[in-house]
Amino acid sequence: MADAGIVRSAVRGAIRRARDWDWPFVAAGKTAAGYMRLVRATTPIVFEPGNPFEIYADRAPFILTGWHGQHLMVTLLMRRGDRARALVSKSRDGDISANFMGSFGIEAIRGSGGRDRKYTVEKGGARALLQMKRSLDDGVSIATIADISNTVARRCGDGVIALARASGRPIVCMGFATSRWYAMNTWDKATIHLPFSRGAAVVAEPVEVPRDADATLLEEKRQEVERRINAAVDRAYEIVGKKRKW
Q1: Can you say how many angstroms the Cα of residue 76 is from the centroid of all Cα atoms in its chain?
Q2: What is the SS3 assignment for 244?
Q3: By the 8 A CB rule, do 160 and 40 touch?
Q4: Residue 174: helix, strand or coil by DSSP?
C-alpha cells in the first residue's frame, strides 16, 4: 500500500509539472498555424466588399470582431506590413491561440472578460481593456471576439462596446465561411475550415460608439454589432453556396 501511495504521489507530481511545460502549447499553436496556411493556399477567398485593412485604412486603427468558433480566420486578413493585436485568454488554451496568432504576426494581449466584474478582474479583463485601448491609441488595430467564452454563443457581450466607447475607434464586424467545414460539438460550434474549399470573408460597415453614450444607446450599439456579425456570416455562407447550420 505504501508503494502504491508513492506511485500515486509521483504521478500527481508529474501531472502538475507537465502543466507548467510550454512546449506542447507552442507546438500545438505552430501546428494549427501550418494547417491554416494549407487552408489559405488551397482556398480562393472572396472579400466583400474588400479586406478591411485596405477598404478601411482611413478609419484605422479599428476594432475587428466576430464570433467564437470563427476567430482564427482573422489571420487570413493579414498582409505583409499589417499590424494587429488580439485579445487572448490567460488559460492554457489561450497559450495555443497566442502561439497561433503570433505565427501570423498578430501580437497577443492576455486577458478575458465576463459579465461579472469580479470574474473579469480575476481573469485580467480590466488590465486587458487598458492594454487594448493603449494599442488603439498607438495606432494598432485590435482583433477581439464579440461573444463571451462559455456563455451564450453569438450574443455580443459588453466588452467590445466598452472598448469602442473608451477609445473612440470604430467596430468592424466580420463573417467568414468556406464551402467545406467541420462543425465541432462545442458550446460555440467552432468551425474547422477544410482545405480545397471556396472561401468568403465579409466585412460590414463600421459601428461607431460615442464616448458620451448612455446605457440605452450602448445596448442599441450592442444589438447592432450582433446583427451585423450575423448578417456578415450569413452573406459569407451565401457566397460559397452554403447555409450556416447554427
Answers
A1: 12
A2: coil
A3: no
A4: strand
> Considering the entire predicted model, what is its pTM?
0.84
The stretches in the chain having pLDDT less than 70 are 1-21, 112-125, 149-151, 245-246
Whether 85 contacts 111, CB under 8 Å: no
Helix 159-167 with 215-239: angle, nearest 10 deg: 110
Q: Are 108 and 127 in contact (CB under 8 A)?
A: no
Beta bridge partners of 145: 66
The torsion angles phi and psi of 7, rounded to 5 degrees, stand at: -65, -45
Residue 119: its pLDDT value, please?
A: 37
- Residue 205 pLDDT: 95
3-class secondary-structure state, position 84: strand
Number of residues that this document lists for the chain = 246
